[in-house]
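Entry 12.
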Amino acid sequence: MLYRRELLGEASPLTLRYTSSMEYDKLIACEVLEVMGAYIEELRELKVVPEDAANRILGELENLIAEPSKLFHIKAEDVHEAIEVHLKEKLGSDAGYIGLGRSRNDHVAAALRLKVSRLLLKLLKSIVGFRRTLLSRASASINVLIPLYTHSQPAQISTLAHYFLYIDEMLSDYSSALVKALDITVRSPLGSGPAAGVMAPLDRGRLASKLFGGMLAVNTLYASGGREFSLITLALVSSLLVSLSRVAEDFILFSLPQVGYFKLPAGHLATSSIMPHKVNPVTMEIVRAKAGGVLGKFVSVASIVKGIPSGYNLDLQEANRPVIEALMEAIDTLEVLRDAIENVEVNAGAVEGDIKRYPLLASDIAELIALKTGKPFREAHKELAKLVKEAKNTEELYNRVREAYNINLNPKDAVKRPVNGSPSPENVKSHMEKSLKNIEEFEAELSKYSFLEKSRC
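Predicted 3D structure (tokens):
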């Protein structure tokens, strides 16, 4: 279209339809306009563009930021070309100034970095909010007993607080990794041109200060053609959703009628179209599906990047949408799980029934036998396994343990295991104090990226 006309003539409708990114450039249109505005301001400050022309361009860019939909009625290769077409219609020859020292390569990289950075910051703040909900629920659940499972079999006694704090620690680790991804992403590529820089005397540091907090992607080839920030972000976000998928699976299993530990809020359930008695944990099922979908987006982008040499190739156009969509889906998933955890109810009767039904204290008792008698643990393990086999039920098992070893262990005492990180009330309270401090420190760290929230989008 605009760029190819003199050399190649008009593009065929088939080629334009196949190669144009206009449909999903809507995701970054506002950032593209902001980037263009910062760049025009730089040209004005350098006095390489007449001030009147620069001001007219900036005024029209502001109009487009207020109503970017105008761009998507234009037949163009991408939103960058559409902006130039629009400016030419509105401003005539003055629109031609925007090509100086600018390539679509560094400008799309800048817009994508800006969009991804903003979404990463939003994701990190969502994680902080989720962690606060987990700590709140944990504080109220220190003495609420639940069984924990390994190999999908009843394993040990724990507490609901301990379970919630497992999720909190997992999210803390992801926060540490994702904030590094944000630091890698929020770096300006502006001024890099197509690959090796430009002749216009752009001050790249000053450009970086306008939208990127002064942070710079230095090497021009890496800045304009690299997508490592997308790969790193997608790898972490897909891993995060895989981990959250396990939590969703817990909620599905714990809310099964046959188990019944959890009662999900009605808003997270749906009814069957044919079976009047059924309620389905639909939000948790979608969490599982989203995790698979985002993992697929990571594989898609990695496959695109793997297949091309260094420098910008149009293949990278197809890698923009997956990273943005993955981040948006991750943010939504966090909000859904946070709401579920905030409002889930525990069925004490079902929990107590399984605590009585299954020998969940067996491993604790085997250790106590070894500690009390001085026997090798394997001997104590064998002796207790024999009692488990012979006992008709858990009550009989515990009675026989009392008779044989004078060990009288109950579930409330069993959770008071002395090791750090166990569900003992002291450990749980200590974890919550440290987590709260960690959250506050992390929020202070995030504040240095507050410039990202000054978007006009």
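Annotation: The domain at 113-352+430-451 is CATH 1.20.200.10 (Fumarase C; Chain A, domain 2). The chain has three domains: 5-100, 113-352+430-451, 362-408.
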